[in-house]
Amino acid sequence: MSPLAEIVAITAVCVVSGCLGSLLGLGGGTFVVPILTLAFGLDMRLAIGASVISVVAGSAAASPRYLDEGFANLRIAVTLEVATVSGAVAGALLAGYLSARALYTIFGIMLAFSAVQMLRNRRERASTVVPDDRIADALSLHGTGTGTAAGTAVRDVRPYRVTRTATGLTMMTAAGAVSGLLGIGSGAMKVPAMDLAMRLPIKVSTATSNLMIGVTGAASAVVYLQRGDVVPALAGAVALGTVAGAHLGSRLLAVVPEGALRAIFLVVLLVVSVQMLLRGLA
Amino acid sequence: MPPAPTPAHGAPESGARQVALVLRIGGALGAALVVAGLAVAFAQGGAGWLHGSGDDPLGGDAAMRLSDLGGGLRHGRAGAIILLGTIILAATPAAGVVTAGVAWLRARRAWLAGVAVVVLLLLVLAGSLGAAE
């Protein structure tokens, strides 16, 4: 394959991964690194460098629409970023002292547990009363989001209350630490933290995670750019494809039913957890 | 301190519009530079891109560091233009946090503005730790 054909193919693949990444709040990295290394035979280090750029680019492309439409909650995103970035700094400092295999195993188990919890909780949400939370009240984290009425395509505006902010912050610190330790995005942990602990609607969780991963990814991007792990043509092709896909994904979020979004997220979460467990236990 | 009011139904929250605008501008500018850089790269080495002769534009030898940016731009290197685009894309979310902090400060939401400042300080710390690695 000529370099031009390779660049066009990479861009096209990244349109799909960017769309899924922005829709699920995972960023494109979950899909981009395996595709670049396995399908295109590219060096892992350069694939991760391009993926980090793609995560930030995808977040910047999808988030404006999410903010305009009220899916992403800016106050929650910035508040939780304190925990995520702190965790990432701590993780980066600890990176030399912990075995990567053990970390992959722990991460895989945590994701599998989150998937099971999300599966168990999917029917309980409507009837459960959300407990009051002082931190959420003080920072006025509660908000409104748009949803689709069950069985119809009618969109309505629904208020939601945020709870267990302290638990969410703790889970976000863990997510950030995993990011710092393993050099991966942690959208797969951020969405369950907001969905399970803080009881945010799934669309608010994925859109807010999408906004957050851009901020966390920016710190990693600086490191990869400093190290010289970024090939401009590769990063450019990946970024362009991801931006186009993220625009598409941000349009789809409004129309995809919540149940379908949750089901897709669960499948991806299970696949990622198996992938992590295989890396850890292999 | 009494809790600040939650945004009304459908009303965009304080700072959201400004942050969305900053993200849109940063994203568009970064993507435009990436496209321009790729076009220049193709114009400079089109034959190599089509037939695979010469340097591999996707290989490890084509990697650039942040420190190569200034020199690359001065010499009109396509890679440097793409790198500048990716740097703008990478800096855009941090610019969004700055914008949110300023908007919250103007709206007299001191706690949230303080949280935004803490996030920015942590980002600077994370960046400097990474650079020192």
The greatest interface here is:
A-B, 71 and 80 residues
Task: Provide mean pLDDT of chain B, rounded.
Answer: 82
Helix content of chain B: over 70%
Say what oligomer this is: heterodimer
Please tell me what the overall shape of chain B is.
elongated
Percentage of residues in strands of chain A: under 5%
Count of runs of 4 or more consecutive helical residues of chain B: 4
Number of strands of chain A: 2
Number of domains of chain B: 1
Count every beta strand of chain B, where a strand is a DSSP E run of 2 or more residues.
Answer: 0
SSE series of chain A = HHHHHHEEHHHHH
Task: Output the number of helix runs of chain A.
Answer: 11
Helix content of chain A: over 70%
Q: Which structural class fits the helix and strand makeup of chain A?
A: mainly alpha
- List the helices and strands of chain B in order: HHHH
Walk me through what this model shows.
The complex is a heterodimer of chains A (282) and B (133). Chain A is 73% helix and 4% strand. Chain A has 282 residues and is mainly alpha-helical. In chain A, helix 1 crosses helix 9, helix 4 packs across helix 9 and helix 5 packs parallel to helix 8. In chain B, helix 1 runs antiparallel to helix 3 and helix 3 packs antiparallel against helix 4. The N terminus of chain B is likely disordered. By secondary structure, chain B is an all-alpha fold. Chain B is elongated, with a radius of gyration of 20 Å. Chains A and B meet through helix 1, helix 3, helix 4, helix 9 and helix 10 of A and helix 1, helix 3 and helix 4 of B.
